[in-house]
Design brief:
alpha/beta; Rossmann fold
Length: 292
């Protein structure tokens, strides 16, 4: 019987906020810093951590407002991607993470790329799963978000809340575009929705929806980072993702020379359906690039 590696569930204080994180593996092994997407948390990495902790050191924090981290109100904390990246930067410093592979997914991409461009020499490599650094693919799903960026009104906010913050919408994120919806555990959307439904959390998510507009002007800077520093990159992208469709994956090949590219027949949360496949890709990729 396969042995699953124990995962520790810890909390550390950053700027007065309790930041929850999952950690497993030998701290002297190569580190994988796992940055989650919306509307989930480090919970999305719960199985991957157990699978890879025999060989790697894995750390997966929850951003403020997500998972088990602090959830200050919007008038008590700046919910922006700049500030989420600031918190994660201080988190890596406090944990003394000198070098790491960055696994970025969805919101994890704009958080992680801010970190990578500031500390390029700490990044052993990138693992990119449905996270954009190019405008290709930001299509129909993004229209109500772009309308909110142009006009931050209560009416446009309500459209986003109705479309993206309900149980039906959260379930859709997990099941849309997958091969077999019956393979996806409903625990995922029940867990995420419970946290989204906390008083004050909708306002937090709306602030981050609005802040997402600040990511697109940084795309050229991130692309320049790719071209200049050429971080080894593993792409594992669910092609059925309506939010970040496959066309957002291909432009990475224009700027990165050392790239391993896999399009998977699954949806947005690819780890739910293709855990073993992705874990094997990561294991081989990280082994090959740990000596950097």
């Amino acid at each position: 019987m396969a042995t699953l590696n124990p995962v520790m569930h810890k909390t550390i204080e950053i700027d007065g906020q309790d930041i929850f994180y999952r950690e497993a593996g030998n701290p002297n092994a190569p580190t994988l810093l796992l940055l989650h997407g919306f509307p989930t948390s480090s919970h999305m990495f719960r199985n991957l951590i157990q699978v890879l902790a025999d060989e790697f050191h894995l750390v997966a924090p929850d951003y403020p407002g997500f998972g088990a981290s602090s959830m200050p109100k919007v008038d008590e904390f700046e919910y922006s991607f700049d500030n989420l990246a600031n918190i994660i930067e201080k988190f890596t410093i406090k944990l003394d993470l000198q070098s790491y592979f960055l696994y970025v997914m969805d919101y994890g991409a704009p958080v992680g790329y801010r970190l990578a461009t500031k500390y390029p020499h700490k990044v052993l490599g990138l693992i990119v799963q449905n996270g954009n650094a190019y405008e290709e693919g930001l299509r129909d799903f993004w229209q109500p978000l772009k309308a909110y960026w142009q006009d931050k009104t209560p009416e446009n906010a309500q459209v986003l809340a109705d479309n993206f913050l309900t149980l039906e919408a959260t379930k859709w994120q997990y099941t849309n575009g997958v091969r077999n919806p019956e393979a996806i555990a409903p625990d995922n959307w029940f867990h995420d929705q419970y946290l989204l439904d906390r008083p004050g959390n909708q306002e937090i998510q709306l602030e981050l929806f609005y802040s997402y507009r600040t990511n697109l002007p940084l795309y050229p800077q991130w692309q320049e980072y790719f071209r200049q520093f050429q971080p080894p990159t593993l792409i594992v992208w669910g092609k059925g993702d309506y939010i970040f469709p496959e066309e957002g994956a291909h432009p990475y090949k224009q700027d990165l020379k050392n790239i391993e590219f896999h399009i998977l027949d699954t949806g947005h949360f690819a780890l739910e359906e293709d855990l073993e496949t992705i874990a094997n890709y990561i294991r081989n990729f990280a082994r090959s690039n740990s000596s950097k």
